[in-house]
Amino acid sequence: MIAIGCDHAATALKEDLKDHLRQRGLECLDFGASGEAAADYPVAAFKVATAVAQGHCALGILLCGTGVGISMAANKVRGIRAVCCSEPFSAKLSREHNNSNVLCMGARVVGAAFAKMILDAWLDASFAGGRHCARVEMIAAIEDGSFSC
What we know:
Blueprint: E1 2-6, H1 11-23, E2 28-30, H2 41-53, E3 59-64, H3 68-74, E4 82-84, H4 88-98, E5 102-106, H5 112-124, H6 131-144
Parallel strand pairs: 1-2, 1-3, 3-5, 4-5
Helix pairs in contact: 1-5, 2-3, 4-5
């Protein structure tokens, strides 16, 4: 199950990506805005990030105007490694090297066709482990306050 959420700026892109996920045979749980009425991106970020962090959903997708604000909010939830991507290469490497678990994009930055390419690159990649494990563990240590250098 994939959690998906958005603010008012990204409702159309959210619907396009939900259809794309279904075409890939994936189920999603929608935590996003459903119309053009103003909706605060931190609310969607919190709901999606919490669903992922608590294990109710394996991964999350968050959308706002730029992807920046919603990624910042999601990263405040313990255990979330949200990445804001505007192209497929970073999306792929964020999974392989950083074990990202929430993908954020901006509806005003990428069009629907390119967003699907970014999403596919992210979904098709997996954590490489190895030398990257120590770095992901460092991120977790920063988050829980136990990191030192």
